[in-house]
Design brief:
It contains 12 helices and 37 strands. By secondary structure, the protein is of the alpha/beta class. It is elongated, with a radius of gyration of 45 Å. Helix content is about 20%, strand content about 35%.
Length: about 700
């Protein structure tokens, strides 16, 4: 719509403004002097001066042709996940249809429809952010109002926002809705294995709680790594501490679930996941050595170089057959605490290493029986065999023989040979990638992947897994399980040659580190393992197996109960993987074969459901500051009407917008108030009348 606006006065001065002001000051003084002297025609002189000044100021009438601009109303609809609860989305659609229909029927109103989904990164409803972005794109002088259709649970309430027109909130949801929410108040990032950690939690009641539900005990189920759940009855609206004791290193996923009651708004916020990284406070290692040799120092240096290892070294410095006449009571000031180590505190060790240890009556048979029981109950033993293992004094012929992965043949082969990874060793996590890793770090010199060893203790009947082979493909490194524990046998005492750099050296430190941690059941070194690593919005599913070939398909169950099947592709021998983008946040369960794993993407209880009961409390201050307010849709959809600026924009059954009467100037014309010659004629005439009036007074006098 266009129109003509009249009556606006403009000026186009012929002289600069300071000059005009100076002339005006002179004229005022002259007229004042004339009046002080009592001269006739003073008024006429003043009018003449005013006429001349007006001529110099250039007064003109301004005529504008204006085009009226439509008022803009922002209609923002919340499309986040919480709007999917019950019939909220239907309420929002009905409100949107009625509001937009009434606004479209108003002349001169332009509707901007904005939809707000879940935030991409952290989830949640960033409603004020979307409104601020929309306001920044529109001229403020045209914004006549904003209408928000939402459940009120926004996640940017602290955003400073100025709305130049009335803002009204149409609230979805029901007054009678109620819900319970599990909230984690304290979650440790890591926990020490075997020691107690604490998870802080609270079950909150929200909304109009029914009398039968309010304040009663609720049941919570707690499981670790998807294992069997333990259930407890706990109070609501109280801060609680859950004791947690981790039993393995690496990632531990603790899932907590509160039982859902009938009538509860949603169960999506009844679960929480806490990921705790299990670490060992100190790795307690018992090193039992035979007679000193070059490799003993290597073992000791390797273990002592790790500040997390608490090493106890039991070594034989004076064998029984050595007769030098020194009384036994003078050999040491303090007796070595063998009973304390091998009876009272043996279960406190994470690993026991036998380094070229022969049976010479130093350790009684009872102590070796205790070590065997220690392994069967979950302990770990690593044997670095020398010539002693092939002799009649071999520990194989003790109680430990039942758990040894290979038997000696009494032969010791002297001469150089190259340790090689077996086909199984190329798949096993203890030795997988050793050659590639060493190739990057090895110093110059030597041939082959690493240096040769010079002694091999011949073994047979290897019943475990042979990871490395010696001369003629014979077992060199064999690992096995015994009861709940693990045993490893290295059929040579020449690994120290790698440390000394013989023929270029080799990855002795990395091999022994992996071997020791495998024996202590580190999750990253498990032969049969299923892992899930979350990075951003994607998860990498990996399946490690010792079985060659075969198809591996991961069954993934999402937080909504839906199941997908993901074929895993072979990345390298023994490792199958798949990169997958889950459809949304929550707790997922993976099953592949007889292995099971859980992982959490984002939060098990998404941000959208932290507070599920609809409420206008977060938006009411902003709405009321603009003259608007909050209206529940369940009370009836309001009409939309226009109200004058400064008047309330909400009432019983209606909400308002404020017309802004904004326009755009499409044409502008200036018409002089009078021609210049007319101003001169008027001024001259007034001066003439003043002169005649003064002359008449003189003649009369």
């Amino acid at each position: 719509m266009t129109g003509l606006d009249l009556g606006q006065l403009a000026f186009a001065p012929l002289l600069p403004l300071p000059v005009l002001l100076a002339l005006a000051a002179v004229a005022v003084l002259a007229v004042a002097l004339s009046g002080w002297r009592g001269l006739r025609g003073t008024v006429l002189r003043g009018l003449a001066a005013l006429a001349f000044l007006a001529a110099l100021a250039g007064p003109a009438l301004k005529f504008e042709t204006r085009e009226k601009l439509d008022d803009i109303v922002l209609v923002v609809t919340d499309r986040s996940a919480s709007q999917g609860l019950k019939d909220r989305m239907a309420e929002a659609d009905a409100a949107l249809a009625k509001v937009t229909a009434e606004l479209d029927a108003m002349p001169g109103v332009d509707v901007r429809r904005i939809e707000v989904p879940d935030a991409e990164v952290e989830g949640g409803t960033l409603l004020k952010t979307a409104l601020a972005r929309a306001l920044a794109e529109e001229p403020q002088s045209r914004v006549a109002g904003a209408i928000l259709i939402t459940d009120g649970q926004i996640h940017d309430p602290d955003l400073a926002l100025t709305v130049p027109a009335p803002l009204n909130v149409l609230l979805t949801g029901r007054k009678r809705d109620w819900d319970r929410r599990l909230k984690i108040t304290e979650a440790p990032a890591f926990g020490i294995i075997g020691e107690e950690s604490v998870i802080g939690l609270r079950v909150e009641e929200q909304g109009a709680m029914p009398a039968a539900e309010a304040g009663r005990l609720v049941q919570i189920a707690i499981s670790v790594d998807g294992g069997p759940a333990a259930s407890y009855d706990i109070p609501v609206n109280a801060d609680l501490e859950l004791p947690l004791k981790l039993d393995h290193a690496g990632q531990n996923i603790v899932q907590l679930t509160v039982a859902t009651s009938p009538g509860e708004l949603t169960e999506r916020n009844n679960a929480a996941v806490v990921q705790v990284n299990g670490v060992r406070d100190r790795l307690r290692v018992l090193l039992i050595s035979g007679e000193p040799y070059a490799g003993e120092r290597t073992w000791r240096n390797l273990l002592k170089s790790d500040s997390a290892v608490d090493l106890v070294h039991f070594t034989i410095l004076r064998p029984p057959e050595k007769e030098d006449g020194v009384p036994v009571e003078e050999l040491a000031l303090i007796a070595f605490p063998t009973r304390e180590l091998f009876v009272d505190k043996i279960d406190e060790f994470d690993l026991i290493i036998f380094d070229r240890y022969p049976l010479r009556g130093i350790l009684p048979a009872q102590y070796l029986d205790n070590i065997r029981s220690y392994v069967l109950n979950g302990g770990a033993v690593l044997v670095a065999a020398g010539a002693d293992y092939a002799s009649v004094e071999s520990i194989y012929y003790s109680a430990l023989g039942d758990i040894m992965p290979a038997a000696p043949t009494t032969r010791v082969l002297e001469g150089p040979y190259l340790p090689k990874l077996s086909d199984l060793g190329k798949r096993h996590p203890v030795t997988d990638g050793l050659e590639e890793a060493w190739a990057k770090d090895r110093p110059p010199g030597g041939e082959g992947p690493w240096g040769r060893w010079l002694r091999y203790v011949d073994v047979r009947h290897a019943r475990g897994q042979t990871l490395m082979e010696g001369p003629e493909g014979k077992p060199l490194l064999v690992v096995d399980r015994a009861g709940e524990g693990r045993v490893a046998l290295l059929a040579s005492d020449q690994a120290w040659l790698w440390t000394r750099g013989f023929e270029g050296g080799g990855p002795q430190q990395e091999l022994l580190r992996r071997l020791a941690h495998w024996a202590m059941k580190e999750p990253d070194l498990e032969e049969e393992a299923l892992t899930a690593t979350v990075k951003g919005s994607e998860v990498t599913i990996e399946r490690r197996t010792m079985e060659p070939g075969g198809q591996h398909v991961a069954k993934v169950t999402g937080p909504d109960g839906k199941t997908v099947y993901l074929p895993l592709a072979e990345v390298k021998p023994g490792l199958y993987a798949k990169v997958w983008a889950p459809p949304g946040p929550g707790l997922y369960r993976i099953v592949e074969g007889d292995l099971e794993r859980v992982f959490a993407l984002g939060s098990a209880s998404p941000r959208e459901f932290e507070a599920a009961v609809a409420s206008g409390d977060l938006l009411a201050p902003l709405a009321e500051a603009t003259g608007g307010g909050v209206t529940r849709i369940e009370d009836g959809l309001p009409d939309v009407r226009a109200v004058r600026a400064g008047r309330p924009a909400i009432g019983r059954g209606w909400i308002g917008i404020t017309p802004r009467e904004a326009y755009r100037t499409v044409d502008l014309k200036l018409q002089p108030f009078m021609p210049d010659w007319a101003w001169l004629l008027v001024g001259a005439g007034l001066m003439l009348l003043a002169w005649l009036s003064e002359g008449q007074r003189r003649r009369a006098g």
